[in-house]
Amino acid sequence: MNTPLLTIAIPTCNGIWCLPDCISSVKSEILENDYQDLVEVVIIDNGSSQNIQPILEEILGSQKVNWRLVRNLENIGYDRNIHKLFQFSKGDFVKLLADDDAFLKGGLKQLVEALRDHTDEVDVIATNFDIYDQSLQVKQYSLDMSDRVDSKIIDGNEFLKNSKGRFGQVSSLAFRRASWLKENPEQGFGSQYIHVYMMLKILVHGKALLQCQPTLKIRSGSLNFEKVNSDVITVPQGAIKIFREFLGVGFEDDIIRSLLNAQHSYVLRRLFSAKKNGLGFSLNLFKVLILFHYDYPKFWLIYLPFYLIPNIFIPFSYIKRRVEI
User: Fold this and answer.
1) Considering the domain 6-222 in this protein, what is its CATH number?
2) What are the φ/ψ torsions at residue 29 (nearest 5 degrees)?
3) Cα–Cα distances in Å, from 226 out to 69, 220, 221, 239, 270?
């Protein structure tokens, strides 16, 4: 087989509950469009306690789909696993796809056609997506991006201004593999946002393309992610650290500061639901909140005082503050 145009790269860890939806959508898109020679599938199992091989063989084994499963003997962390996908992929481009998401019908075709049209021009492609419920059957939200620059090669600043933050979802992004591998990912490890870190590094000098028509189903929330209240707050803070690192580095400061403020707001709004669901006071979380949000005025005026309210008073205070804000 010649070098494929695209690798669909799927990171997973104990994803046996959601992988069938993801893999089935990939298989359908490849076979319906006769992309067997253009697209390969690489799955890296990041130290799961579950054996996903039988499921993959059942869905893909008898089909003419080029796929490989790589197993990590132990969990190497989310970011390092994403980077490993690029090391094991063979495609000129790598499309990241979370194990609990799936392609919309025709979604892969839109991406492949864009790559064919701009093979020598583009380093990063971001695609729009629709939010679905936990079953991936009921659409809950769709973002209209018809007013944005669609399917044209743009620089990093234009991309960040037009993308409406869709790049925060790992499944929204595809990268030129060579562009990713020539950058050093070390500073992004541990952030849980290696895809955003590498996207920004590449786009300091690279080119991007934004697809405004939805191509993906993104599963609302994550069963694994939502189990621990503090994770709902601490994980998204990795993007704040990354955005700070790119102030004055290749992008207009106003754009990066806008992304910072949006991420501050996104993270801190989650304090309301986390407290309502029983998140108690933690000195470690208190320190982390200050470390990440010290330069955001609303943190001191609204969110930190709310976090310090004893949980017994939360129902009334929560409703009152929601009305005031």
Assistant:
1) 3.90.550.10
2) -65, -40
3) 27, 11, 7, 18, 11
- This model's pTM is above 0.90: yes
**Separation of alpha carbons 56 and 189, rounded Å:** 28
Give the tokens for residue 229. 């209240």
* Residue among 79, 59, 78 at smallest CA distance from 69: 59
What distance in Å separates the CA atoms of residue 17 and residue 223, rounded to the nearest whole number? 10
For the chain, the structural domain boundaries read 6-222, 228-324
Q: What is the three-class DSSP state of 220?
A: coil
CA dihedral 253, 254, 260, 264 (to 10 degrees): 150
Contact 123, 208 (CB under 8 A): yes
Among 226, 131, 204, which residue's Cα sits nearest to residue 169? Answer: 131
Q: What is the pLDDT of residue 228?
A: 44
- Label residue 219 left, alpha or beta by phi (over 0 means left) and psi (-120 to 50 means alpha): beta
- Residue 89 has what DSSP assignment? -
From CA 83, how far away is CA 198, in angstroms rounded? 10
Amino acid at 215: T
Pairing of strands 124-132, 208-219: parallel
What are 172's two structure tokens? 């929204």
Helical pair 237-245 and 253-276, crossing angle rounded to 10 deg: 170
Predicted confidence (pLDDT) per residue in 224-271, tens digit: 444 445 777 888 889 999 999 999 999 999 999 999 999 999 888 888
**Which pLDDT score is estimated for 127?**
96
Q: What is the pLDDT of residues 116-156, one digit of tens each?
A: 999 999 999 999 999 999 999 999 999 999 899 889 999 99
